[in-house]
Amino acid sequence: MLITECISLFHRGSAVAKIVGGNVQKYDHIQNEVKMWVFEEQVDGQNLTEIINAKHENVKYLPGIKLPENIVACPDLIKTCEDATMLVFVVPHQFVASVCRQLKGKISPKCKAISLIKGVDVEENDNGFRLITDMIQDSLGIRACMLSGANIATEVAEERFCETTIGYRNKADGELFKEIFNTPTFRVNIVEDVVGVELCGALKNIIAIGGGLVDGLKLGDNTKAAIIRIGLYEMRKFAKMFYADVKDETFFESCGVADLVTTCAGGRNRKVAEAHVTTGKSFDQLEKEMLGGQKLQGTSTAKDMYGILSKKGLCKEFPLMTTIYRICYEDLPPIRIVEDI
């Protein structure tokens, strides 16, 4: 069985590769080599894939962290995935459709997938959006699980203890993916709720923008706690409104309240939102200056959600998400984060 990790340039993909590469060596039924798709770029005149394969380190996106020697970086998406029986998707949600188009008809129908992508795809359907796991399943004709949790990449790579959640539709798939991810410092719990896990992962990035605005305004811990509570309430309300079978218990997993808390305390969405207040610069400008090629998921997801809510006349039902969108895209003063909710 071949584990193939499909990743973007994000260092979080390399942090996941470190876990999977270490775990597969424990099992006879899983092939030792883990192929990792890396979009090719130049670093000091060398191809990034060649550096990773020679030094066993992603020197640009996860410097100082050694990757297992069975991780093989590959710049060709099709060659990376064509023999796989398990795929791990860790790309920005904006690029999933393109990746799936390239892979369609090129992978085994027996392949299974898991997504670590935190976002949704805006689409003209009854809901106004489509889940990333549904995109993968519909495009490639394979089953897809979802992994999400309070998992800041650098801390995961440094093997500091944390938890994560895998949502499954088929329990055997959930147990198989748990096998390749679970470690003493990366504790995995599996739940039969792909939708709940996925929506928690997407929506918490919006609330993290609110947490960063509160920090930039120096409004204090009480205010941030209020933003987190209101944010969790709106996350659950949205999920239940569009998917009635989402489980309440999922919001108390690592993918829910834990991820929301840690994202509002750290992470790039919070950091950039704080800088927006303190510098007055736009989110687009700060993304270019502060993230080194990574994408700011909170603002793009806020835009996606606002499009859905406004089309359905639901903006007043979700005042926090709506206000965060307006601060990001309509130049609303940041102080309105507490005045308009």
TrEMBL record:
Active site: 204
GO cellular component: cytosol; nucleus
One Gene Ontology biological process: carbohydrate metabolic process
Residue intervals of the Glycerol-3-phosphate dehydrogenase NAD-dependent N-terminal domain: 13-171
Reactions mediated catalytically: sn-glycerol 3-phosphate + NAD(+) = dihydroxyacetone phosphate + NADH + H(+)
Keywords: NAD, Oxidoreductase
Organism: Linnemannia elongata AG-77
Residues the record lists as binding NAD(+): 39, 95, 153, 268, 295, 297
EC class name: oxidoreductase
PROSITE patterns: NAD_G3PDH
Sample GO molecular function, one term: NAD binding
InterPro entries per UniProt: 6-PGluconate_DH-like_C_sf, 6PGD_dom2, G3P_DH_NAD-dep, G3P_DH_NAD-dep_C, G3P_DH_NAD-dep_euk, G3P_DH_NAD-dep_N, NAD(P)-bd_dom_sf
UniProt keyword annotation of Magnesium present: no
Name this protein carries in UniProt: Glycerol-3-phosphate dehydrogenase [NAD(+)]
Residue numbers binding substrate: 118, 268-269
Residues covered by the Glycerol-3-phosphate dehydrogenase NAD-dependent C-terminal domain: 193-338
Family matches, as NCBIfam families: glycerol3P_DH
Domain of life, source organism: Eukaryota
EC number of the protein: 1.1.1.8
Similarity remark: Belongs to the NAD-dependent glycerol-3-phosphate dehydrogenase family.
Statement: the UniProt record of this protein carries the keyword NAD: yes
Pfam families documented for this protein: NAD_Gly3P_dh_C, NAD_Gly3P_dh_N
